[in-house]
Amino acid sequence: MEFDPERSMMSRKPISKWPLSERPREKLLQDGPRALSNSELLAIILRLGTKGASAIDLAREVLAHFDGFRRMADADLDEWRQIKGLGTAKTASLIATIEIARRFWAEPSAPSALIKSATDVVGLFGPHLRDLKHEVFDILLLNGKRRSIGSVRMDDGTVTETGTYAREIMSVALQKRAAGVVLVHNHPSGDPSPSSADTDLTRRAVFAGKVLDVKVQDHVIIGDASHYSFAEHDHIRRFEHEWEESASRNSTAGL
Questions:
Q1: Confidence (pTM)
Q2: 117 with 215, same domain?
Q3: Do residues 164 and 185 share a domain?
Q4: What does each C-alpha distance from 99 to 33, 55, 95 come to in angstroms?
Q5: Comparing C-alpha atoms, which of 145, 140, 123, 79 is closest to residue 227?
Q6: Are residues 118 and 221 in the same domain?
Q7: Which of 78, 104, 130 is where one domain is finished?
Q8: What digits encode the pLDDT tens for the residues 101-138?
Q9: Which residues make Cβ contacts (< 8 Å) with residue 192, sequence separation at least 6?
Q10: Three-state secondary-structure class, residue 138
Q11: Among residues 178, 179, 238, which one has the least CA distance to residue 206?
Q12: Domain region containing 68
């Protein structure tokens, strides 16, 4: 980008001294948020700059430190404190804004959103889960028409005792009167390939669901830029068939 001495000089002035057409807040109200750059949006949250630097300058420093927005999502307080010019109030405002964004993406787009495929699930949970540095596990609850009736975060994202975990999943589904569920969790490594524990949990959940009449529609693992769907790989249907064959053998043996 060609150096603009006039714009560089203006950036060192308080934003209140800028022409109205250049002030981020006024630009947002006049032209909408999409007209603003990342640093201009961040400057509105920061509100004030520091001595000798505008809020825009400080916003650029924050963005340069994190190389964009995504790394901010899981930064701890010590890392925020490394940025010169960010006091307690500014840091709290930024962390709160990031948390609002997380919660926004964690909510289903509508109380009765239709879940037709893993892509729909990734659209709901991906923006919230893909950048976390720790594993979390969610249950998406569905009614009989595969419409979302909410989601529940399990306490422990790392699957250890798959049998216990499958029972807890079904317990939540029954409490919420869900006809079906989609299991959703992230892999902080970025690779969504399922582990043996992921596969075993899915099988056990499908089996438990067949007994309790709760349909496990899918188990979606979210990575960095991709996902893995047990339904898309035909594992859900295979596990259902496996349970049906086992139930049939047991029924025959009991005759």
A1: 0.62
A2: yes
A3: yes
A4: 19, 21, 6
A5: 123
A6: yes
A7: 104
A8: 878 776 665 557 889 999 999 998 988 888 788 888 99
A9: 221, 222, 223, 226, 227, 228
A10: strand
A11: 238
A12: 5-104
